[in-house]
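If you are new to this repository, start here. Below is one unmodified record pulled from the training split, so you can see the exact layout before writing a loader.
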Amino acid sequence: MTPQDDEVDRLVAAWRIERPDLDVEPLQVLSRVSRLAKHLDRARRAAFAEHDLEPWEFDVLTALRRAGKPYELSPGALLRATLVTSGTMTNRIDRLAQAGLVRRRPDPEDRRGVLVSLTDTGVAGVDAAFADLLRRERDLLSGLQPADQRSLAALLRLLLAPFDSPQ
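And here is the target side for that same chain:
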């Protein structure tokens, strides 16, 4: 063990002693990814809470914000962007509308449809929460140089590609 060893190094070393018959090398990467995910989840929840948002609210608001002006999508497009059921999305839109963060309006292209758009309050809130989230995420990555961050991003992209491809 060296002074820069981390908790994963210690658990891998213990498993190598206890189960020398197993290849525990995947733990070197995936246990660290799992631990980092926990830190990221805490940082995200803190950023959202500071702006009185739940993670699901942030998801819906950022989907609308990324759509560009007029920050408007159909409920179906929001479903695809957030991967929830239609009943869940209806409930979420209702709650966001009650909070004054979004509004519904009839879809001029489809008399049966509606469009959901961010209010000015919604834009300001999601912009502030997103800026805070990025600051916290930069802090999580501060131990890596920019080139190392790009290399890590490329490696993670390769690792995730099979999971993200359409089935």
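Two things worth knowing about this chain: The radius of gyration is 21 Å. The longest strand covers residues 110-118.
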